[in-house]
Amino acid sequence: MEMFINGAWTASVTGATQPVTDPRSGAQFDTVPQGNAQDADLAIRSAAAAFELWRKTPMADRVRLQKKLAQAMRDAGQTIGTALHRELGRPLPACLQEVNRAADLLDIYAEEGLRLHAAMTSGGPGEKTVVTRDPVGVVVAITPFNYPLNLLMFKLGAALVAGCTVVAKPSADTPTSTLLLAELFHKAGLPKGVFNVVTGAGRAIGEALVNHPVPRKIAFTGGTTAGKAIAAAAVQTMKRVTLELGGQSAAIVCADADIDKAAEAIARHGFANSGQFCYRVNRIYVERPVYEAFLEKLLARVRQFTLAPAGGEGDLGPLVNEKIYANSAVQVDDARAKGARILCGGQRQTGPGFDGGFYYQPTLVADASHEMLVLTEETFGPVLGICPVDDPWQGLKFANDNRYGLAGFVFTRDLARGLTLCEGMEAGSVWLNDIQRSSHYEPFGGVKESGLGREKGRYGVESYLEYKTMYLSYEVPR
């Protein structure tokens, strides 16, 4: 495949390419361009030219087209979902679900666009003040591998309805689904240059996009180290940034909790997408009176998960590459060496259908402590660390004693205790007594080193708008 710039498939200026591989087998199935600064400039100039017309498109027309794009995604769901399945390795039903959720977010952002309005106040006879919100301009959207379509829509859906144009750079591991989406949207009526996709691995093209003088906003989802570098670079040209970064999210299970429900919710959430998402449960603090009982319930649930081999079916796919795999392997080995109990898993899955991919068994690390990486660093894999605590307040102290603050989870039958713990969690989102998907209507983002800004709902759209104040004077007829 090639890059998609100004409504057309485009090779890199140098002609260089990089492989795209199936993480289930390790086999190459496609190539994409290895873009550089010249390719980034071409895409940005295209987006800048398109912005002059797109920003003037009436909101009703942008909304109408965005809803058409959402339906086009659903109609092409099988094609796009299959591409995602191949590049990510996640079981196909979950990939199809991602396509539909991403389309839903396009619709929701479109509806929020219709609610935008200007404000007018009177300063006295012959004086009015009008406050409008204008699109920020060209946006650079940099997305990770784990939910490439949904996380792209966090940014693209809000930017488009706000009147911005976009240059997207998907992960080098999962570029094909984003490229297919760009072509689909163009065929559905999105004007050329409004949505461009460049590809490339390494820092070169990313730095070219971030440092380019034309874009006015960078929207990034990814690791905290990269996010800090983007923020530092963006300030040189005073670009706005939205950064959704790492997480090491904690769950607190109180002695009075429904431990069956807690175990089910934590297992379902903690191992979704093989643990490869930022706001998953990573560590669990359990009051001692129910600690062993909870471990038993959680272990029984986790043992039900199956791994999907290449060409086969199952609940969990492989990890996307060797680097991501290493996070789990290193953290489990570290915990084992420091005295933790490995209740299940703890090693690579091998055998027919597994040897070609980076499959790590679903793993529970009991008796974890804060000397272990599993309780202090993001895992991004199918591993949960569990630690006993004397009371929920000790659990809250441990939960907050971390540089991340993306999500938190509390389980207790005492509503007053639960609300107090939720309010005490230093996190952007907190769940009480169950774990649902984050709502497309509500703000999503983190505190501390988990990021800056919020996405989704009206909050997401507002982050792509600038306020403008106009002071009007006129002669009052007598």
UniProtKB/TrEMBL annotation:
Taxonomic superkingdom: Bacteria
Membrane spanning residue stretches: none
Single GO molecular function: oxidoreductase activity, acting on the aldehyde or oxo group of donors, NAD or NADP as acceptor
Keyword field: Oxidoreductase
Sequence ranges assigned to domain Aldehyde dehydrogenase in this UniProt record: 9-469
InterPro entries: Ald_DH/histidinol_DH (IPR016161), Ald_DH_C (IPR016163), Ald_DH_N (IPR016162), Aldehyde_DH_dom (IPR015590), Aldehyde_DH_Superfamily (IPR050740)
Oxidoreductase found in the keyword field: yes
Family listed: Belongs to the aldehyde dehydrogenase family.
PANTHER family reported for this sequence: SUCCINATE-SEMIALDEHYDE DEHYDROGENASE, MITOCHONDRIAL
Full protein name: Aldehyde dehydrogenase family protein
Upper classification of the organism: Bacteria, Pseudomonadati, Pseudomonadota, Alphaproteobacteria, Rhodobacterales
